[in-house]
Amino acid sequence: MQQKQVLLLTKSIKEKAIKEFYSKERPTTLCIADLGCSSAELNTLGVVAELIETIENARQDLGNGSQEYQVYLNDLPGNDFNTIFRSIASFEDSLKKQIGSNNFGHCFVNGVPGSFYGRLFPTNHLHFVHSSYSLMWLSQVPIGIEDNKENIYIASTSPPNVTEAYYDQFEKDFTMFLSCRSKEVVPGGIMVLTILGRTSTEKYSKESSYEWDLLATVLNDMVLEGFIEEEKLHTFNIPQYTPSAEEIRFIMEKEGSFILSQVDVSEISWEANEHYYKNDLPKTAFTHYDFVKCMRSVAEPLLVNHFGESIIEELFKRYLETVQVAMTKEKNVFINVTVSLTRKG
Amino acid sequence: MQQKQVLLLTKSIKEKAIKEFYSKERPTTLCIADLGCSSAELNTLGVVAELIETIENARQDLGNGSQEYQVYLNDLPGNDFNTIFRSIASFEDSLKKQIGSNNFGHCFVNGVPGSFYGRLFPTNHLHFVHSSYSLMWLSQVPIGIEDNKENIYIASTSPPNVTEAYYDQFEKDFTMFLSCRSKEVVPGGIMVLTILGRTSTEKYSKESSYEWDLLATVLNDMVLEGFIEEEKLHTFNIPQYTPSAEEIRFIMEKEGSFILSQVDVSEISWEANEHYYKNDLPKTAFTHYDFVKCMRSVAEPLLVNHFGESIIEELFKRYLETVQVAMTKEKNVFINVTVSLTRKG
Description:
Chains A, B: Pfam families: Methyltransf_7. The structure is a homodimer. Chain A has helices at about 5-10, 10-25, 45-60, 80-85, 90-100, 160-185, 205-225, 230-235, 245-255, 290-305, 310-330, and strands at about 30-35, 70-75, 105-115, 125-130, 185-195, 260-270, 335-345. The mean pLDDT of chain A is about 90. The longest helix of chain A has 25 residues, at about 160-185. By secondary structure, the first copy, chain A, is α/β, with parallel strands linked by helices.
């Protein structure tokens, strides 16, 4: 969701980080990984182009010879890598044009299928790791949250053990992520991670839960009207956790392999992606069609897996209406937490 | 075609080569590439498993600690990588079982989309390169073979300039392949290449052309009966060249980056893959259905691209009949040329 805006917001952080690293280390082959790259978002190659452009500028300033890049695009094995791979040729062409340099080296692009909650790369191999809007996804639904009943994520009415279980799963997963990457990233290497998060110190926060609150409202209505069995709803929970910058810092320091170099917390309106808004109409004329489309692309696989195909159309029709009503009342935003980490040693 | 048999035939060559390399060099991360891996043939991961098993045995004999493997599966970007990637988890499981070692390290599998007639990997990166039944495919149909008319590959009636154009294209492509790999393979690194080839010194040889001769016969019949325009057939040629071991040696020495360590020429019957043969029937009861299926998987994309979809069913019905008649008269074989090359320096 809103990937393009996030990439723009975090551009300066990424540029600063990679420029510093490159100017100091100048590796023969610079290895970059994009974790959770997702085929649907072809922005994935956009990030890579941005990083390479920054390094190429630094390289020319320093008067260095041509540089080789090894680029790894990672996502789960079920991801559509074929589509990404078929766009690589045009990516390389536009990269060469963009950089406009005669002594541009080689950029080798690889696909890496697998979960980033396990090892993906050889020891001491990566120089720069990027991940955007992926790390809030947990490796599984937290265990022991049967009493989250009519909620589907941390809600104002969630019992404390549910909130704790969500945080514990995030801590476990994020620690595993850091521990795996600490083996793979060279000393001095850098990770820039953007995670959907929250500013509040409270684990329930409207800014990070409201999109799921609204979806839960729709699901509960559909239970009342007999579309969905109550028991089915009670066992459905979203495997996501939206951390605060403080929680990220805490877990990171506890794991111990990385130093926090930069932190940035930004917000993006739910409306940031709207294409249907016309300038001469009042603000209430937003359709929120694009917002719902984004949410659907994220939530549909989970919903289909749990409830089956048959409720989906009705569900998202209602969700669109619910979002539209909610948005006439107030402005809603997503919170992005971006951190730049440096591997110790 | 007949990949399984070929992999078996060339097992000892591969084992000897990788064992020698590993015992001498013992790299921290051993980088293996399978070039032209093809999704349809899931044997591709079989080769990798075989290589890793050999190294693991050598490692245990030498008393070395656990070993990391970086495995690259390469094919053209249009290949179905999704299918390969979805089989990797089960590959890793069976690898661990097969090796049965508690201190098995990590095996990282990557997909590499691109043509091996260009650069695919960073400089000095690969330790072992494998390619089976891919290098006889040319980067394009040779130029200047308009007078190959009713033939579709080098045939007994092909004019000398056609034969030369085929060889020239192969020399150009294979030289490019060696030159790219010479940058990517570390000094002392090894390539084991199996190419569909021929034993004859003559560039036309029934053993390497007969499957295409028979296809040309069918196509010519279909021209006579009005299924295909004559002009269409005259401009159709298979972008393949089946070299002899001597030609491979000649080009290799001319390019100069590798030393020829082992050569093996073997033959595989067209019937090697037959599943439909029953032991209690006479030999003439072979259906050759599997042989034609293999040929179809290889030739269909080329044929569809040139003649359109509509002739395909009729074409392969006739091809099956033609092959069946041809095989009652004599035994036909494919020739495999396998070479093991060592990077100089």
